[in-house]
Amino acid sequence: MYIASLKTSSGLHIAERTRVEKAFQDHGELGLFSLFITREFKNRIQDWTNEGLKLLGKAETIDSEFDAYIGLELAMSICPLNEITEFWSERRFLGQHDFSMTMSRARFQEIRGRVKLHPLDMTPGDGKDPLWHSHIVLEHMQTKFAQIATPYGASSFDECTVRTKARTRAKFYMPSKPEKYGIVSTPLLGGNRYTFTASGTMGRAIG
Q1: Three-state SS for 24?
Q2: What is the pLDDT of residues 141-198, one digit of tens each?
Q3: For 27, 101, 129, 193, which has the most beta carbons within 10 A of its beta carbon?
Q4: What predicted TM-score, i.e. pTM, was given to this entire model?
Q5: How far apart are CA 156 and CA 179, in angstroms?
Q6: What is the DSSP letter of 202?
Q7: How confident is the model over 28-38, as pLDDT tens digits?
Q8: How far apart are CA 171 and CA 184, in angstroms?
Q9: How far is it, in rounded angstroms, from Cα 132 to Cα 178?
Q10: Angle made by CA atoms 107, 110, 111, in degrees to the nearest 5
């Protein structure tokens, strides 16, 4: 039912529908997530991150811990707060019990500080692309979207800003947008507001 609803109301053509339905039936939303972030791809990021932790003399992550870290990052993106510390706060109306039960804040920030989306020996080249470190993820996700869900019907391009707290040259101020500070991209949007692809506009070709 969920896959059928997605197909009829999202403006997406679901390729390999049998595979997608099986993933959802067997593992729910986690199954759909794994179609895009595969175990192999996640292991690559974990290996690069563990190399960074090891260089600092920190404990390397195991699979369950790294999965928990990813889950907390996703939860933060859905329910953003002003500061990371607020998710672990013990003050009334602040804090998330599940966060403290899943991982300590110190360990979360320790992992987050060394997450690597590229091999450690990869360099920024001429230094003109502030998002050089994210191209592997961008290319992986665009490939997966093309393989699994492709748009049909009316669509349009529009500049938008993607919220980020990172200190990066890729962040711009756009007063006309709901999110005034963020990484500027040019997404391809359908009438149902699904974003099918996004190209960065810093320089102006990032994604």
Answers
A1: helix
A2: 888 888 887 776 666 666 777 777 666 666 777 777 777 777 777 666 655 555 555 5
A3: 129
A4: 0.72
A5: 19
A6: S
A7: 888 888 999 99
A8: 7
A9: 26
A10: 90
